[in-house]
Give the backbone structure.
Amino acid sequence: MEQTASYDEVKAWQEGMTLAETVLRQTTARPDGADVLFREIEKDVISIPASIAEGWVVRYSTKEIRAHLNNARSAMLRLETHLMLAHRLDLLSREQMDLLWPMTQNTSGLVTALLKSV
């Protein structure tokens, strides 16, 4: 596991924050009828770095860390699914997906690696 003093030094948290900022900026303009899906996307993307931070605070307990990192991983999978659905429904453009998808894959890999290291 990463040996850092604070959650904001954890690479997966940093990338999760960048992903959250980018997704939220890309989803501010919403087509009519897209609110439900975009609210889910917002909850998912915000949950990723928040769960990592929560896990880091309780890092004295491997069980607790794993639970929070599993929450982050679950939010990542939900986010990927919701982004794909938004794209299929033409609520996100190809350009937006070309920007967001590599970021989700990078963040997902970091969260998975962090989880495996615990």
